[in-house]
What does this fold into?
Amino acid sequence: MSAIPQSKSDEPSALWHALPWLLALAFFFLADGYHSLGVNILIMILFTLSLDLALGYAGIITLGHAAFFGFGAYAAGLFNLHVSADPLLGLAAATLAAAALGLVTGALILHTRGETLLMLTLAIAAILHEAANHMRDLTGGDDGLAGIRPGAVFGLFRFDLWGKTSFLYCLGVLFVWFLISWRVVRSPFGRSLDGVRQNAKRMRAIGTPVWLRLVAMYALSAAMAGTAGALSAQTTRLVGLSVFELLTSGIVAVMLVLGGERRLYGAFVGATIYVLVQDVAGAINPFYWMFVIGILLVAIVLFFDGGLMGVIETARRKLRRGGAPGAAP
Amino acid sequence: MRAVTILLDGVAYGMILFIISVGLTVTMGLMRVVNLAHGAFAMLGGYVATALTLKGVPFLVSCLLAGAAAGAAGALAEVTVFRPLYRKAELQHVLLTIGLCFIAIAALTLFAGSTPLPAIVPDWLDRMVDIGYRSYPLYRLFLIGVGAVMALGVWLIMERTLFGAKLRAAVDDAQMARAVGINVSRLFFLTFTGGCALAGFGAAVGAGIMPLEPFYALRYLVYFLIVVAVGGMGSFRGSLAAALLIGVVGTAGRYIVPQFGGFLLYLLVFGLLLWRPNGLLPPKSAA
It folds into this structure.
């Protein structure tokens, strides 16, 4: 089944599209004291959205997306320390760096598939982890890269202690990337990748340059993950080695499936829930959240295909068909 | 002479990797399930063995019981959560097994605390013996011996029994095996249970060089997966070769170029997988 809505009646209304952004703005004005948590959520949404492009839409099975997040984070940090403090320039540099990494590694590995591809992506993240660990002079090794001091956004808005500027800054960047993703998955290019995911052989038979398309999508996804990493470096002012860990790659896949793949908004739901559960449960006991997330994952895979967004969509459809007139928004 | 020491250390390490990973290799080859929870079963075994040894149970007995416990947990997991999984896509496998991993880590930490476990190598193993040119830890020689025995045992089962013949047939072509009347589901259940038992035993025996701690299931998972991928899924000989290669190269890298040991190891894995996407010694079906 293609997850891209086929008819107009399946398209959610404008109100639904505005909802996440309205919620984010409401959060900005109402949730004083929680802005840094909000920033964390926004960054994770962007990271998850990037994985949705590669894994969800193009079907590139990866356990190494942390490579791009981490590469973007280190690139932004180093750019800030050695080149310029302007946050937007740093963001652009990190995005390009991650895209280049995605292009090169994607070109090398995307002719493989399945478990081999999984291991290759994992190996790339591990290689970067080792490299960052041992290039101490450049990256600070396992002490992390500290001393990042981003300047004001547009030269006007300074990053404050409470994360208000960071929140709007991340929200703006997320919005831009969301529009790009929205456009891409609905373009002929995105549709062709939908086909590649479902049956690469047939797509090749009708003349689609499969490998080229996959590499292009992978690089785009890498660029987006790099942006997320850069935002994390700029807002937390620190890059730790853990950005390259297997757990980071695993967590982003968890967030994606929690929300539901191939839905774009799934990333919003999944990342938000994950970060909130981690924050609440983690405050009780750092291992407690792993338990909750673990149970959630097992339940979702076994019982709810399509994640939480899938559950919401089914509910909406049922409401529209069986419910009273006007029950559906 | 330093080369001999590195070789011995590497082989000891590789043997533990082999004992833990061989079950994963066969199950991944048989059912194409990407099982990221394999490390959790190993970890469970290690924790059980530690708890038993601290209660005064002899080391070897607790290692065997650890294997039994991990096997039982594996059997339970196969019936309850893995069966519905076979028909799903790889991503679902990855997610569900990561979930199992999280649950196992949280549960074991609840019982044993969030600090690394004490080493349980008994006194009779924890000493040095003369091996001609220098003295060498008996424990590592013991690991090599145990690994060799296990490898021989697995080889005998795979190559010399009817069960092994069915298993090899099913790995090569599960559909055809089913068509000639082999009960592949039962085969898989037994293999999964056996693989988990071996992993639990391996983690218990090898705790002296792969210390048990709360994130054991994830920390060493990469190595187990590397053994599977480099060796070739479903290939017993491949996993032995890959485990020894990873053990020796990893150890040599750490001793000779400490800064770049891990880096070289992953680079080697990356290169090997690009060169042979199906592993070093893939079973016939994948070649």
Summary: Chain B touches chain A through 48 residues (CB under 8 Å). Residues 2-286 of chain B form a domain with the ABC transporter involved in vitamin B12 uptake, BtuC fold (CATH 1.10.3470). The longest helix of chain B spans residues 2-31.
